Amino acid sequence: MAALQTSAPPAPSRRQDRVRIKNKRTVAQRLRHDWPLLLLTLPALAQLAVFFYWPSAWNIIAFMDYSPHRPFWENPFVGFAWFERLFANPYFLPALLNTLKFAFANLLFLFPLSILLALVMHSVVSTKIRSLFQSVVYLPYFFSWVLVVTVFVQVLGSDGLVSNWLLGFGGDRLTFMSDPDSFLFLAWLQWAWKDAGWGMIIFLAALASINPSLYEAAAVDGASRWRRMWHITLPGIRPVIVLLLILHIGGILNVGFEQYQLQRNAVGFQTTEVLDTFVYYQSVIGTQGPSFGTAAGLFKGVIGLILVLVANNVAHRLGEQGIYQKS
Amino acid sequence: MTATDIRLKPRRKSARPSWDEEPSWFGKLTKALFLICYAAAIVLPIWAVVATSFASEEALARAGGNLLLIPTDLSVQAYQEIFDGGALTRSLILTIGLTAGGTALSMVLTIGAAYGLSRPGSLLHRPLLMLVLFTFLFAPGLYPSFLVVQKLGLFDNYMSLVLPMALNAFNLIVLRSFFMNSVPGELLDAARMDGAGEFRTLFKIVLPMSKAILAVIALFYAVGYWNIYFSAVLYIPGLDTQPIQVVLQRMLMSTQGLPGSAADVSQYQTQAPDSALKMAVVVCTIVPIVIMYPFIQKHFTKAVITGAIKG
Lengths: 327, 311
Description:
Chain A: One of its GO terms (cellular component) is plasma membrane. Chain A: It is a multi-pass membrane protein. Chain A: It is found in: Cell membrane. Chain A: Keywords: Cell membrane, Membrane, Transmembrane, Transmembrane helix, Transport. The structure holds 2 protein chains of 2 kinds. Chain A is mainly alpha-helical. Among the domains of chain A are: about 15-50, no CATH class; about 90-145 and about 185-315, MetI-like fold. Chain A has 16 helices and no strands. Chain A starts with a helix and ends in a 10-residue tail after the last helix. By secondary structure, chain B is an all-alpha fold. Helices cover about 70% and strands about 0% of the residues of chain B. Chain B has 17 helices and no strands. The longest helix of chain B has 30 residues, at about 85-115. Chain B is globular and about 75 Å long. At the A-B interface, α1, α2, α3, α5 and α6 of A face α2, α5, α6, α7 and α10 of B.
């Protein structure tokens, strides 16, 4: 540590110098000045190079007849043949449609719940109740999907707590956790339990940033509670709602893997197959081989890339920042 | 009753601004019911899990199910089995080790890069930042990632659970924007005037000022490692000792009477009732989260807002 301190440039007012004559200095001079910053960034960049950029480059095998048993350069290029096989695969289109179905259901049914929670929470005056409630509803966000599904099976499964109550009252067992027809509802219940509370956090912050004098002026003018919500609260959080909707559409194909894989056996693969599970079951442990799985993943990656770019463009047009600056 | 009413009412009034009329009793009741039901839907299942984990075989048999709300004749047999040094103990130790080691590594990578990229105008600043931001736009895909882990010889190696997820670009950008916006530039200038190098500035000034956000980011990483499930399924299917989430999943499959799991599970089950043991494992996976959570919870909003708006 001591050695590092003495080797760092001790010159006073160096920062101002840099701002003024930045462009006149040579690369060597800048390197002498900035090497600690580069050194600090290096480990993270190495991680990205190995576990992001290297696998990204491996996507090239989606266009090759790749076999791990021969040297890389002996694998022939086959153009879009793997994509043709992908689109001809009878399970691919259902997986894509399921992915879209779950993604849009999440967007349409979970967002309003988070907003509703935030609105109710915001109208609670007592700070004690607010912080207690927040502590409770944020917690399940940190639970794993394995844990969430386990708890759901124990409570709502056919041998679960609620089933036993129903049996006690002469009713029937619940079977909806293994019923393909109700899986979308089940998935929504699980999202609501796990994520809706956490989703409220950003709306609460937006609500807190609305100028309270607006409410006061409206109240003095005789606006009722509901009118104040309609004319002040909702317009106040509209930018956040729009921004979050757009960002979610950008990542819409990333519906996750675990929730669907964990309930695959109970509900059936037709209902729970999404793109990620498709790649895993067809290619990683299935017989379709590396190039096929890579093609499916690349399809998802490229669609995702286009969606993110479009969503960001829309965000910029609406005057929002989006996920990257447009400088 | 009336005495407390009189004493409480002015205090409640003072929290509500004077222009805001008191809501109707119906509105209040609906709101209270909504909040209570919502909180109960989260708390009751967790409570039932805890209660069942302490249940004896007789109590469970009497309840006739696999979950109960009121524990009678408590038993810690399930916990004794978890901690008796068998497969479950090894799994817990492995998961704790992965979480501790992984979080430490992730924090080193994230802090270093967040500070290294927090000075616009420094050498290579813009291209390096672009390399980080590009990870938001594209995902390399499941199979290529799997292939790289294989090529590195990390297949069926615990390192494959930590290294591929060691850096989260989102956390990196959140921390970077905190360094840039919330650590006063004058302070950094003053440090430099006094002859402090970058490393000294980072350790003596920037990090002590960022304790809250560092705690939140460490929690996010730690929860990520603690909840490792899919990476283990993908990268270490052949190893005997699996992370606790995989163990829990195997136990869950056996309850549902689904194929492909019975043999795997037998190594975990001995004397305690099935449900109690399973719920005790669930409790073990919840407890670390619940312990860390209250210390960090008050900083959540700041971290999420920094990430969503400025990131």
